[in-house]
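Changelog-adjacent note: as of this version, every example in the card shows the full chain rather than a window. The one below runs 384 residues end to end.
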Amino acid sequence: MIKERVRRVPAPGSIWIGALCRAGFEDDVEAELQHWAEPRGAQTKVLHCAPGVVLIELAAAMPSLAASKALQFPALDDLVFVRDLMRVSVELADLDTRDRFGPIEAELDAQGRWRQVQILAPDSDAAKPLAPLLRALDSRVQGRVDPTANVLARVWLVSGTHALIGHVAAAAAAIFPGGIPRLRFPPEAPSRSTLKLDEAFQVLLSERERERLLRAGMRAVDLGSAPGGWTYQLVRRHIRVIAVDNGRMDAALLQSGLVEHLRDDGFRYLPKKPVDWLVCDMVEKPSRVVDLVLRWFLNGHCRVAIFNLKLPMKKRFAAWEQAQTALGALANHGFSVRARQLYHDREEITVAIVPGEKVKSSQTPLAKVNVHRAPAGRIARRQR
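Full-length structure tokens:
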């Protein structure tokens, strides 16, 4: 006889949020969602946490609020440490191994017709053995997809006997399933760090912005460039690059005719005239990198930037909060500040400063920003 499974659903007046993240960053996801919920009159409670996945209950802080106003659901673009989100409608635990798919399919059918269904597992070592189960379940449900429906259904297998089932709005869906892009490493690229910038272009810029801001003939500066992983992404788009690093650059990039290599400290170098792009992937304290970026925008040296912030082992979300507060000076002047812990990131997040349509010039005046000068003679460590 098949044993009775454990089935849980959100209580009236609350919603459940499923979040996927990099394994080891579950506490940062909890802190970030709590920070998002508090000003909206909601409280968070962790219902389940496993490597790479968090299930959180969002409930109104006051019962009267729940009755008068529906709880909001966070947008993926509002979060940094979350790769993918879904609104969880049911949790199935202790599934019998003799019939795991039947209960999951029944819950999917209960949601109504769905235009798409994604079957995923957290990105963790513990979830890797689930790959055969994912493929088997996916083959069973894909034949029932209805292209005229509006629901995007989701099934996350936390373990072989534990599933989260829910849905997501089309506009809120992650660009890549589970927030994991399947990018091919170009064999001619000098380092795997090239995938960070490739992913950043796809996740942090819209298609319209890529067309507008990544045009052949533009000019860029890559601080901490050696051996050239980020420079490669710019060159392949026919953008001219000043590569600043005391280390050696890839010979093929230098032979492209689009790269000028300057052996200098990335924290002291300034271009002789404004450029379109600043990219930076140097290993330094987040506050020091933020100050560097602010100086560049304050003085009109660039108009778009993508850079990485290497986070401390503890209080990572707090470190991002400090950086976000400082970068708010740019948000007040027509620039969009976006950040995400990308799939190809490690103990870091990637930040993009993107000008709005009306911000045309790299010399747009900004309000005075309190930044600190880098100590003279200090050589920045580079991320290879």
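Structural remarks: The chain has two domains: 6-179, 194-382.
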